[in-house]
Amino acid sequence: MTRRAVARALVYLSLILATLVVLLPLTVVFLTSLKTPGEMAGDSGALTPPDDPLNFHNYVTAFQDGRMLPAFGNTAVILVVAIGGTVLIGSMTAYAVDRFRFRFRKPVLALFLVAALVPGVTTQVATFQIVNSLGMFDSLWAPIALYMGTDIVSIYIFLQFVRSIPVSLDESARLDGANALTIYWKIILPLLRPAIATVVIVKGINVYNDFYIPFLYMPSEDLGVISTSLFRFKGPFGAHWETISAGAVLVIVPTLIVFLLLQRFIYNGFTEGATK
Amino acid sequence: MTDTTEKTARAPVSGPPAPAAPRPARRWRGATPWLFLLAPLTLLIVFTYAPIANMVAYSFTDWDGVSPELRYTGAGNYAELFTRSDLFEVFWVSGYYLAASVFQIAAALYFATILSFNVRFRNFFKGVLFFPYLINGVAIGFVFLYFFQDGGTLDSVLGLLGVETDRAWLGTPVSANTSLAAVSVWRYLGLNFVLFLGAIQAIPGELYEAAELDGANRWQQFRHIIAPGIRPVLSLSVILSVSGSLSVFEIPYVMTGGATGTETFVIQTVKLAFQFNKTGLASAAAVVLLLIILAVTWVQRRLVPDDKVDLV
């Protein structure tokens, strides 16, 4: 019995240790974001709490000088358009491929499946030239088009889901005189709600966090999204860790809120997204 | 080059197969799926297949990405890639991340196993372990830049424990790469963990009860019930780790910019293509990376046949 108790204690010890490893770096950055430049220059170590725990001055600096407000705006625009587009494109593809029998159906399906194996990072050298020749370079359209056009995982999720919707629903609607578009819009799309929720969550978090694509395609400062704007803190705020920390906290807090509110959906979404 | 791209992009879409049936209603039905596929296929071809085709074409030229003229150089770029040691070095850097991902998978498996049993505050621990995966990569880069800084978080913690260090954690290639790989474990452990946990929890509970009645201990339960249940997810994690370690970008780019020997394959390719205008060479590098990843995927599919391939 004592051996069991020791094992139990070790299990909890490892969990507490892991919790410390995860939370400590984040907590320290949060504490740093509340310190004044004077405190930072002084001898106070990284672990000491700030003198004034309500000193939000650095957040104001990050928002104003760090241009975080337009960055959140740009990110929001990209999020809404790209996710809306992904949902439409994914569900349309799934509907067409699952509900119709047409020539070249299998080759079309294979095109989508094989594309899932190609990691986006590898092809950017050439994708860049295409985006550039379409005149989308350095505009919000570049990331929107890329997020919409290269998301095969969502198509998978929709495809699995469309299959579970009984065909008899389509047929009875067709007998009532509905055409394909009406069936898609009035019957399939509303029934896809759970799949849409998954796609919106997974895609939303990925788009919010993406750095690579906005960094490559939107060098203009006005077009900064949260990742690239935060990245630019490195220059002007060089050694001002209190401002950089405030910027990092500003970016992390929305994620934390979404995570706390939607925990269950997020676990399911990422499990589905990765295993499909 | 772009013109041909656009033409190939539109071709399958603008030319739907002519339906054989004469009745207008039938003909319309034949075109319907293509109307739904118009936008998805165009995007797929323009942003996935055309780039791959172009990339392979560029890789045999000395194109700089801007000027209208380019020369065919045969396999010259590939030869350069494999013979110039400074270009090849990035593969050794991937080794750090690959080694780290072995530790990462083991740790994720450990935490998934213990949290699948009855543990207090289970949801709290689950959330804490998973949350880093959701955090913005640039923010993580800054958090750990401060963590490893001289007199930063790590030094302060070590100081509390009575260990005085004055080493620059990101100062030498070995130390820097190890630190960056550790950050990558911190960031990605949560995904592996949640995948494992999901697979373990999908195992019916009666199996454990039956095993317990038969006197099986925790290790035997793991060995004979859990391990077989998570095999598909384990193989998925392995392949994600391999392709992940080859395409590391954000963490080292934000934290060191690729300095002190921390340049990864993707950082090097981005620099070649967009700073040094060596589109041809960068394309060759990207083709090599793509081939490696496809090969790894293929091997994995052969080793662990996926029983869920029912899409076609």
From TrEMBL, chain A:
Pfam families listed in its UniProt record: BPD_transp_1 (PF00528)
Membrane topology: Multi-pass membrane protein
Alphabetically ordered keywords of this record: Cell membrane, Membrane, Transmembrane, Transmembrane helix, Transport
Localization (cell): Cell membrane
TM region positions: 9-31, 76-97, 109-128, 140-162, 183-205, 243-266
Signal sequence residues: none
Protein biosynthesis in keyword set: no
Domain ABC transmembrane type-1 stretches: 72-262
Domain of life: Bacteria
Protein family (similarity comment): Belongs to the binding-protein-dependent transport system permease family.
PANTHER family: ABC TRANSPORTER PERMEASE PROTEIN MG189-RELATED-RELATED, LACTOSE TRANSPORT SYSTEM PERMEASE PROTEIN LACG
Name this polypeptide is given: Sugar ABC transporter permease
UniProtKB/TrEMBL annotation, chain B:
SUPFAM superfamilies assigned to the protein according to its UniProt record, in alphabetical order: MetI-like
UniProt subcellular location: Cell membrane
Keywords from the UniProt entry: Cell membrane, Membrane, Transmembrane, Transmembrane helix, Transport
CDD domains with a match to the protein in the record: TM_PBP2
Limits of the ABC transmembrane type-1 domain: 94-300
Record-linked InterPro entries: MetI-like, MetI-like_sf
Residue stretches spanning the membrane: 34-60, 96-117, 129-148, 229-249, 280-299
Region (Disordered): 1-25
Pfam families listed in its UniProt record: BPD_transp_1
Record's bilayer topology term: Multi-pass membrane protein
The keyword Cell membrane belongs to this UniProt entry's keyword annotation: yes
Family the entry assigns: Belongs to the binding-protein-dependent transport system permease family.
Name this polypeptide is given: ABC transporter permease
The species this protein was found in: Streptomyces djakartensis
